[in-house]
Amino acid sequence: MNLSLILVVLSLILMGGGEFLYKRGNKRHKIFFSIGGFLFSLYWALHAPDYLLRQGDLVNGVLILLGVVFYLYMGEGMIRDYQWGEDTKSLNWLYRTTFYASLIYFSLKYIPYLGGALIWFVAFQSVAILAAFGYPVWIPRAIPDTSTGGVPVFTTVSTNVTISLVFSCTAAQALGIFFAAIYTTELDREEWLGWAKRKVKELKKGFKKRSIEKLILMEDRKRKKIAYLITLPTIYIGNLFRNAGIIYVTYEGIYDFYFAHNYIGKGLSLGLMLILMLILFHYLPELQENVVGLVDITKRSRPGQIVDGRFDLGSENGPDESHSNSSKT
């Protein structure tokens, strides 16, 4: 067992223990989450040189390094929660999301045959899109045994490059993150209902007003169902077209693979993720509160600034400010 796998297993055990304690109301979950998150960040720190130096993937390499710093900072926030007897909802959400997303991602990646089968299935569907438009591409029937293998995409087009789809081409990471972020969002309409009613009164007739009115009347369970149905299929299908597009522009010589994959492909993916996040913020305002709350953590300097699980802006800007008014726009 290599160091990377050891760090993954330990971080999942610790964060899993944190989730177990959290569901039972035991405040020691904060210690488990913070240590598990630290080991999780170390795992990715070990892979940063590979992305930056061997693969030349500047985008992922920089994001990983920023993620390491982010989890170290948030881990300190969890420790403060424990020491000061406070309970920050955003931090709980972050670490619970990290646990479930990691459990999904690393299970697919490290369980034998599972990751390989996923790669082959995604590759099959990606080339099927191109084949449907008459483009001559195909993949072998052999399914990789592990997620470290790749599925080559062959073509009759004259080219010096053979593209192989690998585990990172399956969108497993994005799917895991969005599923976990929705699943761990605890619904509490009291956090946003007052804002929504005021907004309805302020707005004139139009789409935005009607959408907020529908949101007010919508059952909480339905809000989550819609969030799942909008994001997960969109990410999966969008990734298939992304793969197909990269294969096409590379084999046709329009762009080289490095530029098509690392800049065009990643740029489109990030753009889609941002759009989906904005949609989620509409259906799950509590999720927006969680994300904004992570930013608010940077303003926290002393005990007593967390009220009802959220950073109290009044502790910094005066008693007339309210968190819900500032975070919803």
DSSP summary, beta strand count = 5
**Per DSSP, what share of the residues sits in E-state strands of 2 or more residues?**
under 5%
Characterize the main sheet.
3 strands, antiparallel
User: How many helices does DSSP assign?
Assistant: 13
Q: State the distance separating the first and last CA atoms.
A: 49 Å
Strand order of the largest sheet: 1-2-3
Helix content: 55-70%
**Element-level helix/strand string:** HHHHHEEEHHHHHHEEHH
Shape estimate: globular
What integer is the average pLDDT? 91
Radius of gyration: 22 Å
Q: Which structural class matches the secondary elements? A: mainly alpha
Low-pLDDT residue intervals, each spanning 5 or more residues? 318-329
List the helices and strands and how they pair.
Elements: H1 3-23, H2 29-54, H3 58-84, H4 89-110, H5 114-132, E1 137-138, E2 151-155, E3 163-165, H6 172-183, H7 193-202, H8 207-217, H9 220-251, H10 257-283, H11 285-296, E4 306-307, E5 310-311, H12 314-317, H13 323-327
Antiparallel strand pairs: 1-2, 2-3, 4-5
Helix pairs in contact: 1-2, 1-4, 2-3, 2-4, 4-5, 4-6, 4-11, 5-9, 6-9, 7-8, 9-10, 10-11
